[in-house]
Write a structure and sequence with these properties.
mainly beta
Length: about 130
């Protein structure tokens, strides 16, 4: 009985401390980035809407090679400057950006990384 109890306690501790795989997304539409204008942009973006508020989330696997003025925006078969959400906060990893008030994120099918200084695309993720 003692061995069985010890085994159960040890098994429970092991299960509690074992990291299960995290599934990114599941809350909104997700797209995979491809680079543009000779830039490397990769990873995934997700657009999530809750309680009437939308945000763009660049997921943990996001990575960008860098540029002087990268901004995050939405597009509908092309970049829409009215949707600019601000400067990219970092070149890698998870980060989120609020979609501007009055913009219906459901009407857009892309997330863009855009260089406003040179007016060129740096990467785009087509949303599913």
């Amino acid at each position: 009985m003692t061995n069985r109890r010890s085994f159960l306690i040890a098994s429970s501790a092991l299960l509690a401390s074992t990291a299960l795989p995290a599934f990114a997304g599941g809350h909104g539409r997700i797209g995979e980035f491809t680079g543009a204008s000779n830039h490397v942009t990769k990873g995934r973006a997700e657009v999530v809407t809750k309680g009437g508020m939308s945000e763009v989330i660049l997921l943990d696997d996001f990575w960008f090679d860098g540029a002087p003025d990268p901004k995050v925006a939405l597009g509908r078969d092309g970049y829409d400057p009215a949707t600019l959400m601000g400067k990219l906060s970092k070149n890698a990893g998870k980060q989120s950006y609020a979609v501007p008030a009055g913009i219906d994120a459901a009407q857009y099918n892309e997330v863009w990384i855009w260089c406003e200084k040179f007016n060129v695309p740096l990467g785009v993720a087509k949303l599913n």
